[in-house]
Amino acid sequence: MRAYLTMMPRLKAEEQLARIDATALAMGHYDKGTVRQKMRSLRDAAMGDRRRVKVKASPAQLGMVGIGVRMLPAPDKKAVSDG
Q1: 69 near 59, Cβ under 8 Å?
Q2: How many domains does the chain have?
Q3: Does residue 71 lie in a domain region?
Q4: CA distance 30 to 40
Q5: Residue 82 domain-assigned?
Q6: Quick one: which of 68, 46, 50 has its CA closest to 59?
Q7: Is 19 contained in some domain?
Q8: b or e along 20-37 (b: 16 or more beta carbons within 10 Å of the residue's beta carbon)?
Q9: Is residue 79 part of a domain?
Q10: Does the global pTM surpass 0.70?
Q11: pLDDT, tens only, 64-79
């Protein structure tokens, strides 16, 4: 119980500072570099332990959302460039 009583004011203060910081960020009081850094920190905190992995959509997945995929043959290696 003593740890709760000790940490609760700290947590409330941290949350208040985060709200003040978010307001300043939204109101445009930071330069672009600071905005990028703060947004990256917020995204990282929101993601937790999950890593951002970029995944390429397969032709089947693209087809499911109405995007047609056409497979073209590889270019002939014997072709000569104009330039």
Answers
A1: yes
A2: 1
A3: no
A4: 14
A5: no
A6: 68
A7: yes
A8: eeeeeeeeeebeeeeeee
A9: no
A10: no
A11: 999 998 888 888 776 5
Q: Which domain holds residue 43?
A: 2-64
Both tokens assigned to 15: 């949350």
Is residue 69 within 8 A of residue 62, CB to CB? The reply is yes
DSSP string, 25-70: HHTT-S-HHHHHHHHHHHHHHHHTTPPP---PPPHHHHHHTT----
Let me know if 38 is exposed, middle or buried by CB neighbors in 10 A (0-12, 13-18, 19+): middle
Task: Give the per-residue pLDDT at 80.
Answer: 62
Whether the per-residue pLDDT at 23 is higher than 90: the answer is yes
The contacts of residue 59 (CB under 8 Å, 6+ apart) are 69, 71
Rounded CA separation 58/67 (Å): 11
